[in-house]
Amino acid sequence: MRPTIYDIANKSGVSKSTVSRVLNNQENISPEAKQKVLAAIKELNYMPSKLARGLTGNGFDAILALSHRSVSSTSGNPFFSEVIQAISSISENYDFDLILQTSKNYDDELKKIKNKIDEKLIRGIIILSSSLDDHYLDELDTLKIPIVIIGKLEKEYNYIYSVDTDNYADSYQMTQKLIELGHKEIACLHAPLDIHVSTDRLNGYRQALFDNFLDIKSEWIIDGGYSLEESIKAAHTLLDGEKLPSAIFATDALKAFSLFQVIEKDGYQIPDNFSLIAFNDTSYAGFFSPPLSGINIPTNALGIKATELLFQLINGETALPKRNIIPTQLVLTESILRKK
C-alpha cells in the first residue's frame, strides 16, 4: 500500500498541514520541520498523486481542451482527432492530464469552465476553433487563466493567445491559381459560417473573384454542413444545377471527398469535367484519385504549437506573441487543368 501524507506526518512527528506546506513549497515552515518531512518522504519513497496535489491546494496538473461545436459535428472529422492527439502527446510530456469538454451552448460552456477553475481542476485552456462571439471571449478573458485558441483572434486580450494558419490568404491563393489557369466559373463548397475559419476561407474565395472582375454567383456558393451526409447533399445540389462551373474550391477535405464521390457517381471526371482544389488533410489524402491539389492543413503543427505555447504561459512566460501563424504551402497535382 502506497504511503500517504498521514504516514509522513506520523513518521516525521509533525502535523499533516505542515507536510502539505512542504509538498506545496510554501513558506512559514521551520528548517527543522522541513528537514524531518523531507527525510520521511525519502524513507517512505512517497510519490504524491495528482489527486493529492489537487486536494492540498495547488490544484490538479491538467489542461482543458474544448470545442464550440457539438459532438455530432466533430465526430469523424480528422482535424479534431489529430489535434487532440497532438495536444495529448505534449501534455503527457509535461506530466499533465488532458480534460475534454463539450457543451450545449456558450453559457453552459462558461459555467463548466468556471466550475473547473473554482475547483482548481485545470491550469490552462486550449480552444479548438475560434468563436465569432466577442462577448464569449471577453468573458473568458476575465477568468485570468492562460488560454490558447487554435484559430483567429479579432481583438487583443490579456490572457488569450492564438495559433492559426492564414485561411483568408490561403483561400485567395487557391482561387487565384484556378483563375490563372483560365477558369472563370468557379464554385465553392464551404463549411457553416459560425466560426472564423469558415468565414475567412469563403471571404478569400470571394475576394479573389472580385479582384479579377469575375461574377460571384450565389447558386455556386453552397454550405456543405459539418457531416459527410450534409456535404454529399450539397455536392448533389451543385452538380444538379442548370449551369455547371469549370472548377470547384472546397474549404475542407470532407467537402472535397464528397465532391469526388458525387462527381464520379454522376459520370463526370476530375479534372476533365471539373478542376478541384481544396484545403486537404492527411487522413483523407489516400482517398483522392487523382491526388488533390490544394493546401494541407498542418494539424499536428497547430496542436503542438498551441500546447507548447499554453505551457509557456502556465509557467509564467508572458512576453510572447499574442498571434502565431503556422506557414502553409500550395501543392498542385493532376486534380486541376488549364481551361481550354
From TrEMBL:
Give the UniProt keywords, A-Z: DNA-binding, Transcription, Transcription regulation
Signal peptide bounds: none
Query: Do you know which InterPro entries this protein is assigned to?
Result: Cro/C1-type_HTH, HTH_LacI, Lambda_DNA-bd_dom_sf, Peripla_BP/Lac1_sug-bd_dom, Peripla_BP_I
Q: What sequence ranges are listed for the domain HTH lacI-type?
A: 3-57
**Span of domain HTH cro/C1-type:** 4-47
CDD domains in the cross-refs: HTH_LacI, PBP1_LacI_sugar_binding-like
- Protein name per its UniProtKB record: LacI family DNA-binding transcriptional regulator
What lineage is this protein's organism placed in? Bacteria, Bacillati, Bacillota, Bacilli, Lactobacillales
